[in-house]
Structure formats: C-alpha cells, structure tokens
Amino acid sequence: MWGFYAMPEHQPIWGQHLVLDLAGCPRDRLIDADNLRAWVKDLVETIKMKAYGEPQLEHFATHSHDASGYTLLQLIETSNICAHFAENLGQVYIDIFSCKRFDNDLAVAVCRKYFEPEVVEQHLIERGKFLTSLQKAS
C-alpha cells in the first residue's frame, strides 16, 4: 500500500519525494529537541530506511517570530529527511526523499503521532521520471 498516491513498482522513476505541511501542532511538541530526535528515529525505522549517522538538529531564525524553530536533517542511505519546525506558528514542513520506495501512510502516521497536527497537507513528487532515451548518461 503506497497511501493516497499509487506508485506502481514498474514505473521508471528515480525517487519518491513526500512533502508534508502540518499545521495546528502544539508548540511544546516542536520545541522539544528530544521529541524531534525520537520522531526521526521512529520515522526511519517505520518506513524501513537506514539512517546514515545521527540527525543534525539546529535552532535557527530567532530574529524572526514566524520562522524561529529547529531545522533537522537526517541522511538516510537512499537520500534524506529534512524538516523545519516553525514553533511560534505551530507548523512543520517535512521532506522525505528516497530512491527506495516507502509507505506514505506510515510516514504520515508517525508525523501525526509526534506532532499532533490539526491539518496535514501532503504532496507526492515522482522524481527523475524521464523518457527512456534520457535515462542514461551520454
């Protein structure tokens, strides 16, 4: 099951890129660095990826009320997971990109569990979907 968007196994794409926008999240969930680290660890395990090292987690943009919050980057063997947590707005912006397929519904469920959003918008981008004639380097 690939969630709301079906990605057939035979479809020639380079990677799956799930983009999530969450809103209405409790602020305490977004300012807790331990919660953010636990989330990405659970996400990596749930979607059956392999983490490459520890996540990078930095607090940015303290000069801006709207933008202030943590940014997290977790390298995975098949690409990366990146997220920004707009703590004062209760919003989270997540990108999960992998050349290995994963279950979108499971990824969303993990995000709901850790951030308790009122709203989740999701978009799936199929990356590297080129004509057969363009699939090899010249």
Q: Could you explain the architecture of this structure?
A:
The protein is an alpha+beta fold and 138 residues long. The protein has a domain at 28-119: 4-Layer Sandwich (S-adenosylmethionine decarboxylase), CATH 3.60.90. Helices cover 22% and strands 34% of the residues. The chain is built from 3 helices and 6 strands. It has helices at residues 27-30, 33-46, 104-115; strands at 15-23, 56-60, 69-76, 79-86, 91-98, 119-127. Strands 2-3-4-5-1-6 form a 6-stranded antiparallel sheet, with helices on one face. β2 and β3 form a beta hairpin. The longest helix has 14 residues, at 33-46. It is globular and about 45 Å long. The termini are far apart. The model is unreliable at 1-8 (pLDDT under 50).
List the helices and strands and how they pair.
Elements: E1 15-23, H1 27-30, H2 33-46, E2 56-60, E3 69-76, E4 79-86, E5 91-98, H3 104-115, E6 119-127
Antiparallel strand pairs: 1-5, 1-6, 2-3, 3-4, 4-5
Helix pairs in contact: 2-3
Offer a quick outline of the entry:
The protein is globular, with a radius of gyration of 16 Å. The protein has helices at 27-30, 33-46, 104-115; strands at 15-23, 56-60, 69-76, 79-86, 91-98, 119-127. It has a 6-stranded antiparallel sheet, covered by helices on one side.
